[in-house]
Design goal:
alpha/beta, Rossmann fold, Dehydroquinate synthase-like, alpha domain, 2 domains, two-stranded antiparallel sheet, 12 helices, 11 strands, about 20% strand, globular, binds nicotinamide-adenine-dinucleotide
Length: about 350
């Protein structure tokens, strides 16, 4: 088993990575102060595969286990679903000793984390991410929240889980499109943090897509270790953590333009990383060979590398001005400084943006 720790002082927590962790708690249960009740929040897709397994495992630890199954989809990452969770917890007379388990992808993780942050001013929660994207990104770092019709992830809290339990076996049922979306975030870590990891991905794409669990375990461990380090340095995104948003300013604009759920988050990030890398190319921070390698790796992982054809510069600008990353009217972009490092820039010109979205 691979284990690492997100080091945040008294809010530190472990991440466990292995096949079979949903059905076997021996290696992780003692790290979580489990008492009284466990409430599993999941959706009606993940339920079919994994709810019974996790329920039985938690029952075997002597807990009273309840589960709430929400409809599947980004469009349910709302205050209405949040309210459903609140009502459910109250109906089940859950007290402050209750632990919430987020069993699902990033939607369930973000929603459950926000519910845990709010219910009775904060109860424990555990992330059990079941998509590649949530295993390498959203389950680690404590960003929780819901969407608002006027903006994605606009309501939420920083609230850390007590543990992250990554059962690699969950990837066996994940649709290929979702695996690709997760690979968008995986590639991101190579570009912003480690050229060596980028090259490892170039060399191991075939094994990843064959679900070679030795390779996947290594990939997920590397991503979580990078994210843990970034979050350790800057938990509340005062500076460094912003680099995790490589491709996200463009990507969110595409997601919003198309309507939530039409493009997956990771797909927007895929095309967005090409645009951000084009900015780096225009500024001579990466070579045209490196730019081509970035596009190739994104393509190899079955992700889009271009914006939707009907989306104009004006569409991008209008949506990007509402982005959380806007400060003093300036849209801020993460741009690679070289392959393996990135920084935040707020001086990108309209002409550069126009070139980037043509990329
Ligand atoms: N909190 C953060 O730091 C952070 C970071 C990145 C993304 N996010 C958020 O994460 C969300 C995207 O997460 P996601 O890509 O996991 O999407 P998701 O949660 O919608 O899951 C994708 C789909 O896969 C299904 N699924 C999940 N696990 C499965 C499995 N093992 N087998 C079969 N199907 C499975 C889900 O039911 C869903 O249909 C977005 O809301 C995004 O804003 C948050």
């Amino acid at each position: 088993m691979k284990k690492l720790v997100v080091d945040l002082g008294d809010r530190s927590y472990p991440i466990f990575i292995k096949q079979g962790l949903l059905t076997d708690a021996t290696e992780w249960s003692s790290y979580i102060n489990l008492k009284d009740k466990a409430v599993i929040i999941t959706n009606d897709t993940v339920e079919k595969w994994y709810l019974e397994k996790l329920t039985n495992t938690l029952k075997s630890l002597g807990l009273t286990v309840y589960s709430l199954v929400l409809p599947d989809g980004e469009k349910y990452k709302t205050l209405e679903s949040f309210n459903k969770i609140m009502t459910f917890l109250l109906e089940k007379s859950c007290g402050r000793d209750t632990t919430l388990f987020a069993l699902g992808g990033g939607v369930i993780g973000d929603l459950t984390g926000f519910a845990a942050a709010s219910y009775q001013r904060g109860v424990n929660f555990v992330q059990v991410p079941t998509t590649l994207l949530s295993q390498v990104d959203s389950s680690v770092g404590g960003k929780t929240g819901v969407n608002h019709p006027l903006g994605k992830n606009m309501i939420g809290a920083f609230y850390q889980p007590k543990a992250v339990i990554i059962d690699l076996d969950c990837l066996k049922t994940l649709p290929a499109r979702e695996l690709a979306a997760g690979m968008g975030e995986v590639i991101k870590y190579g570009i912003i943090w480690s050229k060596e990891f980028f090259e490892y991905l170039e060399q191991h794409t075939a094994e990843i897509w064959k679900l070679d669990f030795d390779v996947l375990g290594q990939v997920i461990h590397t991503c979580c270790a990078i994210k843990a380090e970034v979050v350790h340095q800057d938990e509340r995104e005062g500076g460094k953590r912003a680099i995790l948003n490589l491709g996200h300013t463009f990507g969110h604009a595409i997601e919003t333009f198309m309507g939530y759920g039409v493009w997956l988050h990771g797909e927007g990030v895929g095309a967005g990383m090409v645009m951000a890398s084009k900015l780096a190319l225009l500024r001579n921070k990466i070579s045209s060979d490196e730019f081509a390698r970035i596009i190739k790796l994104i393509e190899l992982n079955k992700l889009p590398t271009k914006a939707p054809s009907n989306m104009t510069l004006a569409d991008f600008e209008k949506i990007m001005l509402h982005d959380k990353k806007v400060k003093a009217g300036k849209v801020r972009f993460i741009i690679p400084d070289f392959l393996g490092m990135a920084s935040l820039y707020d001086d990108v010109t309209e002409a550069e943006i126009a070139e980037a979205i043509k990329a």
